UniProtKB/TrEMBL annotation:
Coiled-coil zones: 4-31
Record's subcellular location: Cytoplasm, Nucleoid
Protein family (similarity comment): Belongs to the YbaB/EbfC family.
PANTHER family hit by this protein: NUCLEOID-ASSOCIATED PROTEIN YBAB (PTHR33449:SF1)
Function description: Binds to DNA and alters its conformation. May be involved in regulation of gene expression, nucleoid organization and DNA protection.
Protein name in UniProt: Nucleoid-associated protein SAMN05421545_3576
Amino acid sequence: MFDMMGMMGKMKEVQAKMKEAQDNLQHITVTAESGAGLVKATVNGQRKLLKIEIDDSILNTNDRDMVNDLVVAAVNNAMLTAGERAAEEMKKSTEGLLPNIPGLDLGNFGL
């Protein structure tokens, strides 16, 4: 027989685990670089930009477009990697709590 109360309890457990996992994403940090390390971007698992480091040697150049491109590339790389790490953490945090339902991806939940 279908156990509605048991299912509701399980959903509360899943919600609590998901909230805890989302809160823990702020502790994941990823740094990516572009231009052979001339620009570095650091983001957290919640995909918030934490820091940009730009080497002095390119700040003194007149090629603003190059600097802009390097910043964009570093930030995009860091965001992509942070998103992947966050998805892995969310998956680990919810492992075993829900049945394996094809197509159900909790990795991007709340991001």
